[in-house]
Design a protein that fits this description.
The protein is an alpha/beta fold and 499 residues long. It has helices at residues 6-24, 29-32, 45-48, 61-68, 78-81, 89-98, 101-109, 115-121, 133-137, 147-161, 184-195, 212-215, 224-237, 253-258, 290-298, 325-336, 357-365, 434-438, 469-472, 477-495; strands spanning 176-180, 199-203, 240-242, 264-267, 273-274, 287-289, 317-321, 341-346, 369-372, 374-381, 387-400, 406-410, 416-418, 422-425, 429-430, 464-466. It has three domains: 6-161, Fumarate Reductase Iron-sulfur Protein, Chain B, domain 2; 176-272 and 430-495, FAD/NAD(P)-binding domain (3-Layer(bba) Sandwich), CATH 3.50.50.60; 276-427, FAD/NAD(P)-binding domain (3-Layer(bba) Sandwich).
Length: 499
């Protein structure tokens, strides 16, 4: 009997698909709704939990075109309204369906310079895909057109083709702008302001650029080479980058205006202040904020034990407290760093978890255990001050709270002990307090978020703007980019003499 290999079967499927694509292209809207959604090829779970390579492998051209053909090109275009940077989604998707990938990437880049990043980490299912007519017609959001996967595909195609081009820069104006922080908001401001011909200097506190995209998101979700490519594009545009420069310490924020001659400043320093629960035992050896844990692994390369200078804590049994994307990242990283068992402990049910469904599904596939309706009461240590266990409580759901999610209520007398040697707290981050502490006249709220005008991102101090997590609290890459676009537009208007 002739047994075909998996590769041969895949190649045959691609060939068959290529043959039927011309016919499918003639489908009417009602017929396009019958085209099955295309699954994302991924690494085998058993293999990937032992490496840091990207989990999702990306669509083939044939898969991308077939998925794009599921778009019915509706007239009201609700997906655009769901995108914080208002990409013309139907236009770029139609170009993919037609097989003209260069036109597709060009259409995206009219609105966003970070498609390879957004296509990987943005929560499209709660933004552009949430309002997709295809998903609503099928009464299943999971059947919406996979806009994010298509965005990733065209961005990756451009990179592999070697056709990435730096945006055109207008004639030099002699004006200069300081951008503080090289996360997604800062990168967008730097690009949009530089396009207008203004000199841009980007200040980064760390020795590597990229902000949360580098230190917070593991490479199995967002490879560093993708971030590096976006930074390289800025350099080609003429943006000057200064690392190891802590605004607020190396230089005060207002000094950039008053002493260094900048015409405007944008602050995008993010939300890097980890939150803890305030329970007994959080000072024990083996307790980490997810922020520190991921920064050690991602930015400081601690996973490379033979070559990294930064140590990583050796763990066998790890509890991760929280239910967001950061909790998923920390749990999956712990597994890759050699933990035998990893438990995600969350005080609500899976329905209320803010993490993306895809990340939760990947974590389950990789052997992460989920303990719902439970939370830590205190962390227990041994005689050497190291974590040995965690005492937990069981919960039930009560009435909805201010977030709209049902409030977790403790079940009295439900205490039990979970044997662990490491606890990672992933319940959120606060805004970086340094700028507020060293800029006395800057208006911030009780959480330390900078207060801005929602239309222009302008602070109460003339010529200083802010956006991203320093304003929003811990949010998403694309929301930070949206704020960056508004700030850049306001700064460009100011420098043009009309603001």
């Amino acid at each position: 009997m002739n047994h075909k290999t998996e590769t041969e079967l895949h190649n045959q499927a691609v060939k068959d698909l290529a043959e039927v694509l011309p016919k499918i292209a003639q489908y009417k809207a009602k017929d396009r709704l019958k085209i099955p959604a295309q699954d994302m090829p991924c690494q085998d779970p058993v293999v990937r939990r032992s490496n840091l390579n990207e989990v999702a492998l990306g669509y083939t051209l044939e898969q991308a075109r077939l998925e794009a053909m599921r778009c019915i090109q509706c007239k009201n275009k609700p997906c655009i309204a769901g995108c914080p940077v208002e990409i013309d989604i139907p236009r770029f998707v139609q170009h993919v369906a037609e097989g003209d990938i260069q036109k597709a990437i060009d259409a995206i880049k009219e609105f966003s310079l970070l498609p390879a990043i957004c296509g990987r980490v943005c929560p499209q299912e709660t933004q552009c895909q949430l309002t997709c007519t295809t998903g609503k017609s099928l009464k299943d959001i999971d059947k919406a057109v996979a806009i994010g996967r298509l965005e990733r595909f065209v961005a990756d195609w451009e990179r592999t083709q070697g056709t990435i081009k730096a945006p055109l820069v207008k004639t030099e104006t002699g004006r200069k702008v300081a951008v503080v922080g090289s996360g997604p908001a800062g990168l967008v401001v730097a690009a949009d302001v530089r396009r207008e011909g203004h000199k841009v200097v980007l200040f980064e506190a760390f020795h590597k650029t990229g902000g949360v995209m580098r230190y917070g998101i593991p490479e199995f979700r967002l490879p560093n080479e993708i971030v590096d490519q976006e930074i390289d594009t800025l350099k080609k545009m003429g943006v000057e980058i200064k690392t190891n420069f802590v605004v607020g310490r190396t230089r005060k924020l207002t000094d950039l205006l008053d002493k260094d001659g900048f015409d405007a400043v944008f602050v995008g320093t993010g939300a890097g202040l980890p939150m803890f629960m305030g329970i007994e035992g959080e000072n024990l050896i083996g307790v980490f904020s997810a922020n520190e844990y991921l920064t050690r692994a991602n930015l400081m390369r601690a996973f490379d034990r033979d070559n990294a200078d930064t140590p990583m804590y050796y763990s066998k049994y790890v509890a991760v407290l929280g239910g967001g994307n950061v909790a998923m990242d920390a749990a999956r990283m712990a597994k890759r760093l050699g933990a035998k068992e990893v438990y995600v402990v969350y005080r609500r049910t899976e329905v209320e978890m803010p993490a993306r469904k895809e990340e939760v599904a990947h974590a389950k596939e990789e052997g992460i255990h989920f303990y719902f309706l439970q939370n830590a009461k205190r962390i227990l240590g041994d005689d050497k001050g190291r974590v040995r266990a965690m005492e937990c409580l069981r919960y039930e759901l009560g009435e909805p709270d201010s977030s709209g999610r049902r409030r977790p209520v403790v079940i009295e007398g439900s205490e039990f002990t979970l044997d662990v040697d490491t606890v990672i707290v992933a319940i959120g981050n606060g805004s970086n307090p340094l700028i507020g502490q060293t800029t006395p006249n800057l208006n911030v709220n009780k959480w330390g978020n900078i207060i801005v005008d929602k239309e222009t991102q302008k602070t109460n101090i003339n010529r200083i703007y802010a956006g991203g997590d320093i304003v929003l609290g811990a949010a998403t890459v694309i929301l930070a980019m949206g704020e960056g676009r508004r700030a850049a537009a306001a700064i460009n208007k100011l420098l043009a003499g009309a603001g």
